[in-house]
Every structure is written in structure tokens, then in C-alpha cells.
């Protein structure tokens, strides 16, 4: 079977082939866009989490800490990322949430009493029935908790472990790979 186009005879099979090629190129372009979008999203999510967890707070003079226990529930749920501002311990008031070191761990508890003469804070976790067994000496005080983002602390805790770092590396690698694959497919579809 043949058709006439612009004075030339063209086999009908060539039209079928052209349509098939166009359909496949359209699919390739769709896959290319999808890969590029997935790659960009993966990289953007990792960048956003990293910036919100570490970089941005430091520019504002804050330190970030992950909540790892339920002692401050429900005010500070496990997995929250808490931001602490530096403050002189004498300026802390009853009801403030202090961030301090105890036995090589960061503790985030509410102040029950500020013992100015003894230079210690009496603290208690909101979910705990009684005050903490040991007061927090002024020299161990890091600051006062001023804000939190629920859930982001899990990201920070994961990065503290080797498996978490490996997963983060894998996610970044996958994001970059999807972006590169999308670009490569788009290049092939243009040829």
C-alpha cells in the first residue's frame, strides 16, 4: 500500500513507523521528566532537612538537639529537634526549658527552681513525676529551649549512626542518579 505526499509516493508502513517512533519518543520524554523531578525532589528534601537541622540555626546563634526520650512529652515529643539559645543560667526562670549536660548527655528539662546562691538548677521532665535526682550546675548549662520541629530530630539521630549516614549517602546518590538519567534520556530523545 502506498500514499502520495507532495508528489512523492510514500509507503504507508513508513507512516506507521513514524507514529511508533513519535510515541516512543514521547514516552522517553515523560520518563526523562519523571526521573529529573524525582532526583530533584530527593536532593531538595535532603538539603532542606540538612539546612533546617544544622545550618540555619547556627546562623541565628542557636544550637540544635534531638529529643531521644519521652521525659518531656507532650511538650517536646520524641524525635523533635529542639533549638536552644545561649543564655546566662542566672537569667533562666522557673518554667523555662533548660538545655544542659549531665553525664556526657544533653538533657532538656523544665526548670522548677533556680538556686542562684548554689549556682544550680532544679529541673524536671514534664512527663516525670518528681524532680531530677541531681541538680544541673550552672557550668553545664548550654542554654534555653526556644523552639522545636517535631520529627526532624529522627533525621539528626539517624545521621549520628553509620547506617544513617549510609542511607543518607544512598539517597543523595539516588537523587543525583535520577537527575543524570533524566538528562541522558532527554538528550537521547532530542537526537
Strand order, largest beta sheet: 3-4-9-5-6-7-8
Counting H and I runs of at least 4 residues, what is the number of helices?
3
Q: Main beta sheet: strand number and arrangement?
A: 7 strands, antiparallel
How confident is the prediction overall: mean pLDDT? 87
Gross morphology: rod-shaped
Order of helices and strands, N to C? EEHEEEEEEEHH
By DSSP, the count of extended strands is: 9
* Rg, Å, rounded: 29 Å
Structural class of the helices, strands and pairings?
Answer: alpha+beta
Low-confidence stretches: none
Assign a percent range to the helix content. Answer: 40-55%
**Amount of beta strand:** 25-35%
Distance between the termini: 29 Å
Could you please describe the fold and organization of this structure?
With 191 residues, the protein is α+β, with helices and mostly antiparallel strands. The chain is built from three helices and nine strands, in the order E-E-H-E-E-E-E-E-E-E-H-H. The protein has helices at residues 12-59, 152-159, 162-190, and strands spanning 2-5, 8-11, 63-66, 81-85, 97-102, 105-115, 120-124, 136-137, 141-149. The strands form two sheets. It has a seven-stranded antiparallel beta sheet with strand order 3-4-9-5-6-7-8. The chain is rod-shaped and about 95 Å long. The two termini are 29 Å apart.
Amino acid at each position: 500500500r502506498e500514499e502520495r505526499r507532495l508528489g512523492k509516493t510514500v509507503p504507508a508502513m513508513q507512516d506507521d513507523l513514524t507514529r511508533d517512533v513519535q510515541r516512543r519518543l514521547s514516552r522517553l520524554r515523560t520518563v526523562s521528566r519523571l526521573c529529573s523531578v524525582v532526583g530533584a525532589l530527593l536532593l531538595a528534601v535532603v538539603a532542606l532537612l540538612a539546612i533546617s537541622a544544622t545550618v540555619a540555626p547556627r546562623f541565628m546563634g542557636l544550637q540544635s538537639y534531638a529529643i531521644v526520650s519521652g521525659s518531656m512529652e507532650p511538650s517536646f515529643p520524641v524525635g523533635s529537634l529542639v533549638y536552644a539559645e545561649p543564655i546566662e543560667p542566672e537569667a533562666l526562670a522557673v518554667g523555662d526549658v533548660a538545655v544542659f549536660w549531665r553525664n556526657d548527655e544533653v538533657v532538656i528539662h523544665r526548670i522548677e527552681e533556680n538556686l542562684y546562691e548554689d549556682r544550680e538548677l532544679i529541673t524536671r521532665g514534664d512527663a516525670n513525676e518528681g524532680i531530677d535526682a541531681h541538680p544541673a550546675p550552672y557550668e553545664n548549662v548550654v542554654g534555653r529551649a526556644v523552639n522545636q520541629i517535631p520529627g526532624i530530630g529522627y533525621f539528626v539521630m539517624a545521621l549520628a549512626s553509620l547506617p544513617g549516614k549510609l542511607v543518607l549517602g544512598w539517597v543523595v546518590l539516588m537523587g543525583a542518579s535520577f537527575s543524570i538519567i533524566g538528562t541522558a534520556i532527554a538528550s537521547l530523545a532530542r537526537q
